DNA sequence: TTGTCGGCCGATCGCCGACAA
DNA sequence: TTGTCGGCGATCGGCCGACAA
C-alpha cells in the first residue's frame, strides 16, 4: 500500500516507528486488541512492557474492507528471552521518537459521506478545497468544465470519475463512476473518503468506515486486570 | 439433500449402494478422481481393489455450486488390514447388486437451458411434459391460466416462479422469479435444470452445470499406470 | 411444440438546477 | 459553500405475441 495513502486512511493520530528505532511492546495491550481471550497460561511471568527494536514495518490493507493495518516485526532487547521474535499486528507503542517525520505531509483530503453522497440517486459533492488542491487542474474555460479523474485505491486498482463544475451556484461534483465506487466498496452515509496526491504524482483514493458498534462499548473481561497495577 | 432430488441431479448413470451391501473399492480410481497426485509411497502394497461393506451413504450438495456428491463410509472385508476405515468421496463401484431399486422412480424432468432461457431478457420455456406431469395442476379455465410455482433447492431454500400458459400457439412459461434464480445460481446456456416431484409431495428444483473443460481432457499423469494391468 | 426475436411498457438510474441551510 | 430535493431523460428489465424451425 502506498505509504501516503496508508497514513491518510489511518488518520493523524497514528504514528508508525521507523525500522531500527526502539519501542516498548505491551503484551496486555496487544492481547486486548485481538478481541479474543489470549491465554498466557503457558508463560510463567509476562512483563508489562518489553523494550524492542523495530525490525520491519509493513503497511497493509484488508483485501475486502480496504481497512488499513500494519504488521510490525519486533526484536526484544536486554538480557531476557534473547531470540524471541514474532510478527505482530497493530503494535502498541509509546516511544514516539524516531517516528517517520510527517512534516513532508503530502496533500490529502478527507470527507465524511452525506446522505446525498451515499444515496444511489446521485454523485459526490466535492468540497472546493479538495477539487482545487488535490484533483488535477480543471479547465474552467470549457463549458461546462469537465474532466475524468483517475484514482488508485489501496490495492492499486484504478477508479475513474467524471468530475464536473456546474450548477447555480457553481460547485464541483463527481458523477459517472461514483455510484459504481460506492456500491463496490459498500459505502454508506457516515463512512469517509480520502483523496491523496502521492509523492509520485498519482492520485489515490481510500476509505475509512464509520464505527458501527463492536469496539468502544463497555469493557470486555480481561484476565490482565488482576495483574497490572497502574 | 432430498434423495430423489439428489438422484435426479446426479443423473441416471449414477447408482448408489445401500448400507450393508458389499462393494469393491478401487484406490486407483478414487485417487484419479481427486485431480491431485496421491502419494501411496508410505503404503508398501496397495491392492487394485478391496472388497468392502458399506457402512453409511450421505447425499450432499456443494454449498456454493449446488453440485451433488456423496460421502460413502466403507469397512474392508477379508483378512487384510482389519480396522481400516475412512470416509471417502465419490466412491468407485462395480458391485451394482443391492443398489437402491430405482423402479419406484419419482416423477422428474430435466432440460438443458437454451440461450433464451438463460438470457436475462426473459423467462423459461417450460416443456409441456414438465408442466403437465411435474408442476401443480394449472387451472386452464382462467384467462390467462396462471399460478405461482414453489420449489425447494438442494439446500432446502424456497424459490417462487410465476407459471403462465399463454401465447399463440399456447405454451408454458416461467416469468417472474426466473431471472432471479438464474442470477443467484449463476446459470448459463448449456447448464441444466431439474424439477422433481418428491415422495412427500414437495416440488424440488436442482441444477446440473455444463462441463466447461477441466475434466475430460487428456489424461493426467498417474503413478498407477505402472501397477495396474487391466 | 418450443427457440428466438422485436415491440413495448414500467421501473430504475443517474444527471441536472432550484433552493436553502 | 454545499446538502437535499424534485424533475426528467436515458437506460434497463422483463412480459408479450409473432414467427419459424
Structure description:
Two copies of one chain form a homodimer. Chain A is of the alpha+beta class and 230 residues long. The first copy, chain A, has five helices and eleven strands. The first copy, chain A, has helices spanning 3-10, 27-32, 115-118, 128-133, 178-185, and strands at residues 22-25, 50-61, 68-76, 86-89, 108-112, 124-126, 146-152, 158-166, 171-174, 192-197, 203-208. A four-stranded antiparallel beta sheet of chain A has the order 1-2-3-4. In chain A, strands 6-9-8-7 form a four-stranded antiparallel beta sheet. In chain A, strand 10 (192-197) and strand 11 form a beta hairpin. The longest helix of chain A has 8 residues, at 3-10. Mean pLDDT of chain A is 79; it is low at 81-98 and 214-230. The chains hardly touch. The structure holds a DNA duplex (21 and 21 nucleotides).
List the helices and strands and how they pair.
2 copies of one chain form a homodimer.
Chain A: H1 3-10, E1 22-25, H2 27-32, E2 50-61, E3 68-76, E4 86-89, E5 108-112, H3 115-118, E6 124-126, H4 128-133, E7 146-152, E8 158-166, E9 171-174, H5 178-185, E10 192-197, E11 203-208
Antiparallel strand pairs in A: 1-2, 2-3, 3-4, 5-10, 6-9, 7-8, 8-9, 10-11
Chain B binds a DNA duplex (21 and 21 nucleotides) through helix 3 and strand 9.
Describe, in short, the structure shown.
Chain A has 230 residues and is an alpha+beta fold.
Quick tags:
11 strands; disordered C terminus; four-stranded antiparallel sheet; 5 helices; 230 residues; DNA-binding; homodimer; alpha+beta
Poorly predicted tracts of residues of chain A: 81-98, 214-230
Q: What is the number of helices of chain A?
A: 5
Order of helices and strands of chain A: HEHEEEEHEHEEEHEE
The total count of strands of chain A amounts to 11
Q: What's the quaternary structure here?
A: homodimer
N→C terminal distance of chain A = 37 Å
Amino acid at each position: 500500500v502506498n505509504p501516503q495513502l496508508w497514513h491518510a486512511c489511518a488518520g493523524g493520530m497514528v504514528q508508525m516507528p521507523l525500522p531500527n528505532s526502539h519501542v516498548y511492546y505491551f503484551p496486555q495491550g496487544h492481547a486486548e486488541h485481538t478481541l479474543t481471550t489470549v491465554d498466557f497460561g503457558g508463560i510463567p511471568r509476562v512483563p508489562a512492557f518489553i523494550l524492542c527494536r523495530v525490525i520491519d514495518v509493513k503497511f497493509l490493507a484488508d483485501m475486502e474492507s480496504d481497512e488499513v493495518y500494519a504488521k510490525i516485526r519486533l526484536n526484544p532487547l536486554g538480557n531476557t528471552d534473547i531470540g524471541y521474535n514474532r510478527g505482530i499486528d497493530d503494535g502498541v507503542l509509546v516511544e514516539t521518537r524516531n517516528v517517520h517525520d510527517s512534516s513532508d505531509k503530502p496533500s490529502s483530503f478527507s470527507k465524511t459521506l452525506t446522505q446525498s453522497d451515499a444515496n444511489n440517486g446521485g454523485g459526490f459533492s466535492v468540497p472546493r478545497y479538495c477539487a482545487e488542491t488535490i484533483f488535477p487542474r480543471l479547465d474552467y474555460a470549457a463549458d461546462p468544465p469537465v474532466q475524468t479523474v483517475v484514482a488508485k485505491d489501496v490495492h492499486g486498482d484504478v477508479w475513474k470519475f467524471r468530475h464536473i463544475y456546474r450548477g447555480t451556484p457553481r460547485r464541483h461534483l463527481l458523477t459517472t463512476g461514483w455510484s459504481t465506487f460506492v456500491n463496490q466498496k459498500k459505502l454508506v452515509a457516515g463512512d469517509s473518503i480520502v483523496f491523496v496526491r502521492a509523492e509520485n504524482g498519482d492520485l489515490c483514493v481510500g476509505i475509512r468506515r464509520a464505527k458501527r458498534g463492536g469496539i468502544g462499548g463497555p469493557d470486555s473481561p480481561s484476565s490482565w486486570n488482576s495483574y497490572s497495577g497502574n
